[in-house]
Design goal:
The chain is mainly α and 85 residues long. 39% of the residues lie in helices and 9% in strands. It has three helices and two strands. A two-stranded parallel ribbon has the order 1-2. Helix 1 links the parallel strand 1 and strand 2. The chain starts with 5 loop residues before the first strand and ends with a helix.
């Protein structure tokens, strides 16, 4: 049986990001487990549902837009953390 220093379950955007982060942090090997035949998970199905600060955008502009779209249920601290990372 193969050994890995890190095992990531799920090949969606979060899982792929975790695998890359583990390697960048010095993991000697990463095993990515995905049940579907293609990577992407539900993230690949989220048409227009993935948001991030893009080129030409600012964290403040992203936060303002996200808070306006999210209404009273939006948590400004969490939105700002998402925008920065």
């Amino acid at each position: 049986m193969a050994e890995a220093s890190v095992v990531v379950v799920g090949g969606g955007f979060a899982g792929l990001s975790a695998a890359i982060s583990a390697l960048e942090a010095g993991a000697s090997s990463v095993t990515l487990l995905e049940k579907e035949p293609k990577l992407g998970g539900n993230s690949a199905k989220a048409s227009f549902g993935i948001n991030a600060v893009g080129e030409g955008d600012t964290v403040d502009a992203f936060v303002e837009d996200a808070l306006a779209a999210g209404g009273p249920s939006a948590d400004s601290g969490l939105v700002r953390t998402l925008a920065r990372h």
